[in-house]
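Ex. 9. Protein: Dimethylmenaquinone methyltransferase.
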Amino acid sequence: MTSLPVPLNFPERAKALGSSTLYEASHLPCAVDSSIRAVWDGAFIGAPAYPLQCSPGDNLALHLALERVPRGSVLVVGTGNFIAGYWGEVLTVAAEAAGVVGLVIDGGVRDIAALKKRRFPVFARGVSVRGTLKSSVPSVGQPFNFNGVDVAPGDWVVADDDGVIIIPLADAARTLAEGEARASKEAQMMQALTEGRSTMELMNLTEWRSRA
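Predicted structure tokens for Dimethylmenaquinone methyltransferase:
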């Protein structure tokens, strides 16, 4: 089956829906490890992925990636879950100049006050002052498995206060459409709740009243 083209306004529509709604609408195992969180409240990413892998404690791949990454992308960085300060204010300035719109990394970052001040969206496993080496490049721009979720160039990353999901490019338009249908249904349910109906009734759970 041919996939639908991804709408140009995907980021705005994804932000309105949020990662949780899109995760449910996707019907895919696309949720990244929940310990990878925004380093400042309110951060949002809705952009195509540019994947790369760093050796533990080594950020050379990040520097190389910033010479190759397509503008408008989010870097999705595997580190083997090794916590160190792979990323800080200097790389943030370089990323902004390269047109990068965010970072998702399973390692650590630093210079949090600067990241927050610049409003650059970063989702990381931890924060660390520990520096990194620059001596190896496992992969740049190649697909890999990021904490249980496959990621390839162009897959859509949606990240907000609820968490991070990675939607395969072929499923992005479908997921967005199903997410908006789900949001519309939930809006109708919430209106019914304000009118006095119950979640038990609206979700067809009334048979449990006699069992509990």
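Check your answer against this statement. Residues 142 and 148 are 16 Å apart (CA to CA).
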